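Lab meeting notes turned into a lecture example. A postdoc, R.K., suggested we walk through two folding results consecutively so the class can see how the record format repeats. The first protein's sequence and structure tokens come next.
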Amino acid sequence: MKKIINGEEQFSPPVNPIDAMKERIGVPSGVSIQVPVQNASKSNYPIEKSKYEVKKESFFTIEFGLIESDGRFLIVDKENYGSFPDIEKHWVKFRYWRYDEELKWRESSTKFDPDSRNFTIDRGKFDELKIRNLMIDWSFAELSDRHKLFHVNGFLVDESFEMFKSLFPNIILAIINSMNNILENNQ
């Protein structure tokens, strides 16, 4: 704050609003006063989120089929289930992300290359953050207790993420691609 004393500009630190009020109304220094605080009361009418907002129960499920052939697994889209009589049907449940989550995860996955002076997104790290934070459940848990997913504070625990990573790579990619189609492309 700038003051002019005897024709000279002098700077003083910002004034505490309570001290300024005490000086203005003439309260002697060293005397404390209580300032009433207006409490914002909650409305008696709870405001529900609209249908356009992401809620705690906003989920989506991807579905795919697996056929074992020569020691590997072939991925079959849901639309083609009828063509394969011995198909194993599977699903993975995710929650939708909020825009602030997307921005935070995108930022933490971004790298700067000083040579090219470009920012790039580390897709592997970005996809890992989405899997760890958004994957809720999957049909593999029905096969054995070992495949159950566990979360702490909404975050997939390391053991569950390791279980996810131990799947065949084409199954992992099918899950990630389907998840990204919905989250990033709305398809």
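The second example is placed directly after the first for contrast:
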Amino acid sequence: MSPDEYLKNGLATCQTALSKAVLPIFERNGKYKKAVASSVLVVYASKFYLVTSAHVFDDSSELTIYSGGCLNKLPEGVLLGKSKDSEWDNVDIAIKQLSVNSVSVLAKNHAFIQLDNIANNIYSDASYAYMVLGYPNTRNRFEKEITPNILSAVFNEADSQAYTRLNTKKERDFILLVNSKDVADCFNPEREPQQLPKLNGISGGGVWMVGDFSKKGEGLLQPIPIGIVREYEIRQHALRVTRFQYIVKAINEFFSSDVRLNGVPEANSSLAGQPSIRPPKDERVRFNADYPPDTEFSAFGRLLQSKWRERKKYPIGKLGSFIDTEFAKANKANFLTDNIKQLVTNQISEAKIIGGLIGEPRIWNNLLSSQPLCFNLFGELHFNLDMATSFFTGLFPDRIDKVTSVKFEYSPGRGNDRYLGDYSAFDVFVEYDIADKKGFIGIEVKYAESLKEETEEKAIATFKERYAQLAFASGLFKTNSVDALKLPPLSQIWRDHLLSIATIQDYHTGFFVFLFPSGNKQCQIGVDRYRTNLSSEDERLSGFYPRHLEDFIFALHGLYKADWTKELKERYLGLSD
């Protein structure tokens, strides 16, 4: 493949994936509706938002988005740049928080850009190229079907003089060149730059850094989210872009951090001020779920599981969160579908042969265990790879084209020194294709764990020099970080991350997902501490992707409305439709 073909195909792949997160905004105009702006779907701290520019709402009384086969009115939100507050009077940001129902509908056909781990790096380099995705044609009428006229063009960053002329700061705004000799038409690199289409309606569109095109065929990057288009500066021939870092700052300031999902607080990067979620003692006692050593979240989760068991009328074990062992094994009552029950039976038989770690009777009778959760969340995807593809491309739109397998309790080589030389394994292992290359996701799932189940003594006794060697060779960890990483609460996260780093040798690409409920403070603290030992905050570089359980369950239920996905939400999150 020639360098130009490489760029053309790579950019087309970027557009296909990223455009799922970009929506047109429509305005009522008599009996017709017309597109007036663009918007981007984002998720931050397990909350879902639609973001655009505040000036979009200046002359429009009712704006809508198209989802679920119909036009839906936008929810209430925050319009910044309308007040005289010196901090926000020039930002021009509109943020609309989406309801659970809206997210479920949108997730069927769209994706959300993850902002939790967005790097603080202020990317600025003349050789980088940036993709802008939006809907510039405001005269398109909405009929029965939308045929979006999406702008997918590649730009270069403006020089420092442009920032000065526009009286802006790089920490907040990002400036891209338009209609200058530096604009590259990368879909036809041999042609001279042409006049771009009218950019009315591009406000609110998304901007991503996509590559270093001075390197031609070697310059394509995994897209890095930069921000949303604020306005087109005609005289300066530039697009003014509001950085996502500043949008995150606005979300933290204007949206309450203690919004709950039936009692589970939404987590953000700081846990300060979060309310307690430990259920009252009388309620725990009533449902046989009072276990004094529980953390706040394990007490909450234990009560959820105890209530679920009672609703199902399953016989109790030693606590309300346990099913009678004999009944549990005979009926496989810990699992939500017949497919999953058969999968677990097969996996246990296989584990006994290959040395896998699936504990009995825990897998059958312990409702609070994260291992049954793994099968209940991902088990049906093992049988339906089309569903798996829709699910994972929605969660990671820039990394996956097609899922080819979903495995459980998987290690590329137990006891093999090519990897870790121990018996570490991923709870879930997903193989996928991306642009004719093979990739993987190694997933570790936590529910009620505190990350201190392993004692310091055991962590020290089982530590292997191979861990330190691999960490040093990868270049992904800060100097002198091993002493902290080898001990709880970081040790298990580290071993699984190292296993993913070692597994890369068998694939073209791959990354590690650490999945946990946002209300589990111990896991959040562990993740925050673990990040401080990484040499880069950019998860695309570190390969470390912490994610919240709610996001995965919402995405799955949004894609596949079934009794078992509804029960998944009710059992593990305490949410009903």
